Amino acid sequence: MSNSNTLYSSAYSSAAAPLRIGIAGLGTVGGGVAKLLEQQGDLLAARCGRRIQVTAISARSRGKDRGVDLSAVRWHEDARALAADPEVDVVLELIGGSDGVAKELIEQAIKAGKPVVTANKALLALHGTALAKAAEQAGVILAYEAAVAGGIPVIKALREGLAANDVRRVYGILNGTCNYILSTMRESGREFADVLADAQKMGYAEADPSFDVDGIDAAHKLAILTSVAFGRELDFQGIHVEGIRHISALDLQFAEQLGYRIKLLGIAGRTDHGIEQRVHPCMIPLDAPIAHVEGVFNAVFAEGDSVGNVLLTGRGAGAGPTASAVVADLMDIARGHHAPVLGIPAERLAPGETAPMGRHRGAYYIRLMVHDQPGVIADVAAAFRDNEVSMESVLQQARDASEPVPVVITTHETEEAGMMRAIARIAALPAVQESPRLIRIEAL
Amino acid sequence: MSNSNTLYSSAYSSAAAPLRIGIAGLGTVGGGVAKLLEQQGDLLAARCGRRIQVTAISARSRGKDRGVDLSAVRWHEDARALAADPEVDVVLELIGGSDGVAKELIEQAIKAGKPVVTANKALLALHGTALAKAAEQAGVILAYEAAVAGGIPVIKALREGLAANDVRRVYGILNGTCNYILSTMRESGREFADVLADAQKMGYAEADPSFDVDGIDAAHKLAILTSVAFGRELDFQGIHVEGIRHISALDLQFAEQLGYRIKLLGIAGRTDHGIEQRVHPCMIPLDAPIAHVEGVFNAVFAEGDSVGNVLLTGRGAGAGPTASAVVADLMDIARGHHAPVLGIPAERLAPGETAPMGRHRGAYYIRLMVHDQPGVIADVAAAFRDNEVSMESVLQQARDASEPVPVVITTHETEEAGMMRAIARIAALPAVQESPRLIRIEAL
């Protein structure tokens, strides 16, 4: 081994030069990273053989007290200056946004030959393939553990710990806000809008919640996971995305009755039609371990041909968990670790083509609100039959001549396209009020 | 960054020399590793930048068909010869046993400057500190992901993914045989001996099961986890170890009734008296995610000061999961990754002193079999009171003049030493039949 002889003697000697970090963006996460590096400096140095030291920062308000001494640090008005700062070895991008300064900073750091650590899932979801290629051509590390599932070391697990596996499926609870809302709705029986308003008051949801509750954030993370798990270019645009706005307390009740729990999952897997990628609410059997991941926790499941099923759970957001992941990336860089950005060299990634959602196969839960009149169920059943959808159960608990009553149908495994045709026909039936609610049942 | 420029250009070029592996021991795991390296050769090379190639083997029966072509491989009668074989870059020790040939092979490989990968938890539990020191002095990697929790990348998670954290507690379901037996006992209502016999028939338990069911295997793994999590020398001897032989179907019933599930856990954590290390059956609240890890699955939980709670679950044994972990170690070596064997340089590990079990604080479940006569509960209560143990609940469901009936007591948090004195006094009461059964209640 060429590098064995000096492995510990040089890297872990006290003489090793510190790794100098430039931080762009000093919000919750950036402040958390600076504090962690200061408070745990000795422990981190013992573990990675070098001190990790913040030498430069670009952030909006210089004066703000962040509970950490930054008096000796160089400040830059323009974050992009960090790429050129000779006292910066590694650029930490915590500005956010899928374009603009964040992207320019990363591109310039790569050009300058400086390793980059980022927590920016939106940017990676949209530009990850190009950035990976640029980084590898320049021989520069681009690390992003914090971009997916916060503090859970899931990128490391997929890219290194499970690297001996051909992964067949990867899925997860990738958005803590949605999981918190769904957990709370189930426990309290309250409706979405009500729980969302509370979550916003408590800081678990943003003022503009659409990024989270419409599934976009989860889709960004899924795009990254899919690329790393299957060795493909990212294909964010190809992901079928549904959020949780249409989930009602009634559906959560029926789910429990049927032995399921409703979770927003991001799912990617090999199918006969290629890799499928989808983000939507799912009914999960109660005996699946991921059904018990509640509140703001995230979870990522991977199925490998050798290892079988592995599930990782932990906090997906927040200053502490995100800083934990960011600093782990810095420590890998301090140790000289490197692996292809997306698992295999970016030039050799397969094209990022996602299987059409119409070819998805699975079981379905459908809830209709119908005027209880003779022949309705027969019309519904005919719509399913004509589209080759096989019903598993029909549940009509209440009868009421004056108000629409819920009819809940579950189906056997069927193709999405046929299901959508059936639903369109059912939605047009005069007795059917409201849009039919459809939730996919996942056999985990 | 000194190594950035050649990062991908050299390591991931087709010209990179293969990493040549010598395997000692070709049983289930060794055969699995050889097969995995052959079948996934291209994928592994894409991921780690070099081919990994088995060039030498030492195993008992050369002729046996292992489903993989080993005709071009060099065979050694004596495993120790692998250390000296010039066509071996890395030695893979899969012989097992805490001393003898396995230990000598590893020592000789280290002396020869060759990285070692092993799945040998018994050897590491007893000699891990010395081997880590020897390896680091020689500048040689000693990797052992497969030694703890099989396919779950838990060593990587602790040593790298969560390396930014000061870990406060680590615990897990570390023995799949025990977890399978306890799960099956609970589901079927059958007794330990009966379920064990079945597990032996199905190959889930060894003919001599004591290593597993008496908690020794779990303790080996806990010793390693404790060292890595807390930066201390291994202290296997200091672990308090109890197995699952004394768990009865009755206790599993009472546990469910009280809202608990019984699991054999290995637990290590910071206390006022130092690091405690213990392996014993625990009552776990049903809302703890680890309570839902059933059958042969393992799980490891870590609590870090930044990341919070992280839980990893997966298969803890078997050819596939173990080979997955072994090959991941080989890929790290192929990539040139290295980290201190036990998380920080071995010369700087704290002494491996374990807090005395008598100082452990926790809540307890006690089941007595008593002749139902006036004054028994008063005598029991007095024994607790005199030892400053505060009872939380007393349950005496059945009354029978002719046969002993179960009395179940739970206590508030108390010190183990006082509890043991109370139990000794209670055991001596004339009305108390059988030894009192004690199971610790864990507040997870």
Offer a few descriptive terms:
elongated, 6-stranded parallel β-sheet, 444 residues, 11-stranded mixed β-sheet, amino-acid biosynthesis (chains A, B), Alpha-Beta Plaits, homodimer, NADP binding (chains A, B), alpha/beta, HDH_CS (chains A, B)
Question: Could you explain the architecture of this structure?
Answer:
- The structure is a homodimer of 444-residue chains.
- By secondary structure, chain A is α/β, with parallel strands linked by helices.
- Among the domains of chain A are: 154-315 and 351-357, 2-Layer Sandwich (Dihydrodipicolinate Reductase, domain 2); 361-441, ACT domain (Alpha-Beta Plaits, 2-Layer Sandwich), CATH 3.30.70.
- The first copy, chain A, is built from 14 helices and 17 strands.
- In chain A, the strands form 2 sheets. In chain A, strands 7, 8, 9, 10, 11, 12, 13, 14, 15, 16 and 17 form an 11-stranded mixed β-sheet that branches.
- In chain A, α4 links the parallel β4 (90-93) and β5.
- The first copy, chain A, is elongated.
Q: Say which CATH homologous superfamily of the domain at 154-315 and 351-357 in chain A is assigned.
A: Dihydrodipicolinate Reductase, domain 2
Q: Report the β-strand fraction of chain A as a percent range.
A: 15-25%
Largest interface: A-B, 80 and 80 residues
Summed up, the helix count of chain A is 14
The helix/strand class of chain A is: alpha/beta
Pathway (chains A, B): Amino-acid biosynthesis; L-threonine biosynthesis; L-threonine from L-aspartate: step 3/5; Amino-acid biosynthesis; L-methionine biosynthesis via de novo pathway; L-homoserine from L-aspartate: step 3/3
GO biological process, one term (chains A, B): threonine biosynthetic process
Keywords (chains A, B): Amino-acid biosynthesis, Methionine biosynthesis, NADP, Oxidoreductase, Threonine biosynthesis
GO molecular function (chains A, B): homoserine dehydrogenase activity; NADP binding
